[in-house]
Request: fold
Amino acid sequence: MFTGIVAAVGRIEAVTPLGSATDTGVRLTVASGGLDLADVELGDSISIQGACMTVIEKSAGSFAVDISRESLSKTAGLSEPGNVNLEKALRAHDRLGGHLVSGHVGGLGEVTHFAPVGESHELRILASRDIGKYLAYKGSVTVNGVSLTVNTVNDRPDGCEFSINLIPHTVEVTTLRHLKAGAKVNLEIDLIARYVERILSTSADSHQAAR
Reply:
């Protein structure tokens, strides 16, 4: 589990294929930036751009993870060198500064607008309708591993566009500052919303069966 509070911006330094077949995954070598790896062990989880990955190698200033082709097809920003948001897994006694984040990317969104508004930035993202049904005004969403608050929700025929207000600090310390219209982003909706939907849908099915 994670909180969506980015601890450091690292960089994917190398992307190495794990085989010659087209369906094989890759190994990422990630420079940890300011992320302290002293307490990270092999097998531990680290969120990279919002995707939970398992550490398989570690040095003083970098670590490596293996990613399957399936995971690569469902995420953005992990297939080539570049800056990435990093967060170590949540410990039971840690402060929950963001919200409960599993690190399981639910889908991709597309940036439709990113521009300064006063001292902040407005970020608008178009998500699929499957993701959009979980979004709510003042609810939580994770974008590229960053815990954020939804400001508006606009259901459209082609999906659901939602907006977020980014304070200067968030823009400064995450990779979100590099976003442009058309960019793909990793989205994870609120974990509790998924369970609520499951409970309600199961209850509705049981009610129909009992009639």
Remarks:
- The CA atoms of residues 23 and 69 lie 6 Å apart.
- Residues 191-210 form the longest helix (20 residues).
- The chain has four helices and twelve strands.
- The two ends are 40 Å apart (CA to CA).
